């Protein structure tokens, strides 16, 4: 695999760290800014809103720019957002800084995925994407716990300064390692990019992302009370147990990338079915202290098996605008985050028990299978599926797309 993928992984590591670290720092931020925990929780929402808005918007407006320059510019915006977060004097400016930090998130992964797939042979595209996402999953193992500890001992502002330094390292890596000749975007224009998102298969692929990852976040958003109230762990043990989720996500991401290069659709259906099965078993697995860590590990593995095939499927369905399509997939991921947490919360509010969000997640995973099946049927009627096997080779390289236009 090209060394340039390391530069994308460094950027993904920084983004993953700043996205999830706020959850662990909410009490510290609330205490320092003299606000309530629920008010501090809006800082998480502000980042997610930035991702949802920035992902398609920035991908569309930078459609004519060289992708290498776009990636460097996005990381520069990321550095500025996190630096402003570190120096924000009050809640309102911190909300604005968190929103700004979230803007480049989706576009970076979207454009990065196109660059990653353009640097490798067709039969290795899914693995290239999985290596870029490796930075995101490792952030959950090492970056988030380390950043949380730093914030707790040296103040939450130090965490965002450290993330800014990671962003600067990513910029240096991108400049040093990304080839110039492979980073030129096809000249399709804003109208051409948006037109690529009008097709039903694209929206079905995005719908599968929302349902599939909504299943994950329905359960994961409430994993802490499951571990403490159901499995009987102390609060102090939760951080270490959550690192197991990152380990599982890393394993699932690498496994999914390898399998998707053989059969993208088969990996997608298998991953969603595995996720549904794990979530159905959650109430049983969370009932004892010895099986709860296994549940957390399996949740990370099953959910991230689908990350590469989902992204590449969206890129294939919008082949004339892969940057915008893959960025829109990141927006769909964050909608899944918010929607899944909301649905899981409904089951708790209804009094169905502390593990009930996992069962709601299982239903969402089944819904994802249904949406993916509809997409498969549409492809069959359109003649774009051969033998039920969809491979990443259909994702165009930048040069190929430019030649067609």
UniProtKB/TrEMBL annotation:
Keywords: Cell membrane, Membrane, Transmembrane, Transmembrane helix. It comes from the Bacteria. It is a multi-pass membrane protein. Gene3D superfamilies: MFS general substrate transporter like domains. The chain crosses the membrane at residues 42-63, 70-89, 95-116, 128-147, 159-179, 200-223, 238-256, 268-286, 292-312, 332-352, 358-378. The keyword Nucleotide-binding does not apply. Its main location: membrane. GO terms for cellular component: plasma membrane. It is found in: Cell membrane. The keyword Transmembrane helix applies. Pfam families: MFS_1. GO terms for molecular function: transmembrane transporter activity. Residues 4-380 form the Major facilitator superfamily (MFS) profile domain. Signal peptide: none annotated. This is MFS transporter. It comes from Streptomyces fructofermentans. The lineage of its organism: Bacteria, Bacillati, Actinomycetota, Actinomycetes, Kitasatosporales.
């Amino acid at each position: 695999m090209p060394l340039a993928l390391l530069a994308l992984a460094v950027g993904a590591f920084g983004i993953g760290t700043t996205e999830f670290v706020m959850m662990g720092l909410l009490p510290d931020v609330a205490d320092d800014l003299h606000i309530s925990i629920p008010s501090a929780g809006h800082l998480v929402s502000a980042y997610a809103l930035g991702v949802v808005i920035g992902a398609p918007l920035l991908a569309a407006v930078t459609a004519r720019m060289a992708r290498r320059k776009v990636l460097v510019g996005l990381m520069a915006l990321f550095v500025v957002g996190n630096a402003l977060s570190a120096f924000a004097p009050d809640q309102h400016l911190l909300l604005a800084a968190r929103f700004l930090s979230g803007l480049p998130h989706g576009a970076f992964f979207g454009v990065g995925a196109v660059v990653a797939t353009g640097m490798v042979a067709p039969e290795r595209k899914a693995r290239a994407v999985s290596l870029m996402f490796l930075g995101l999953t490792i952030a959950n193992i090492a970056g988030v716990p380390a950043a949380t500890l730093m914030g707790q001992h040296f103040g939450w502002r130090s965490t965002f300064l450290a993330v800014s330094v990671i962003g600067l390292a990513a910029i240096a890596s991108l400049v040093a390692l990304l080839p110039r000749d492979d980073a030129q975007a096809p000249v399709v224009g804003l109208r051409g990019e948006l037109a690529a998102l009008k097709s039903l298969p694209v929206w079905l692929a995005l719908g599968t992302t929302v349902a599939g990852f909504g299943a994950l976040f329905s359960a994961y958003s409430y994993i802490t009370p499951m571990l403490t109230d159901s499995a009987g762990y102390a609060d102090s043990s939760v951080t270490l147990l959550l690192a197991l989720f990152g380990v599982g996500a890393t394993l699932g991401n690498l496994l999914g990338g390898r399998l998707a290069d053989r059969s993208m659709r088969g990996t997608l259906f298998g991953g969603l079915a595995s996720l549904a099965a794990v979530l159905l078993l959650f109430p049983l697995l969370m009932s004892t202290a010895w099986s709860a860590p296994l549940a957390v590990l399996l949740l990370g593995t099953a959910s991230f098996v689908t990350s590469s095939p989902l992204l590449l499927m969206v890129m294939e369905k919008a082949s004339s605008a892969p940057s915008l399509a893959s960025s829109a997939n990141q927006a769909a991921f964050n909608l899944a985050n918010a929607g899944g947490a909301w649905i899981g919360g409904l089951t708790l509010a209804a009094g169905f028990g502390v593990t009930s969000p996992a069962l709601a997640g299982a239903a969402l995973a089944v819904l994802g299978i249904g949406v993916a099946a509809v997409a498969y049927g549409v492809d069959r009627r359109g003649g774009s599926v051969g033998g039920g096997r969809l491979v990443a080779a259909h994702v165009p390289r930048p040069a190929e797309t430019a030649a067609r236009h």
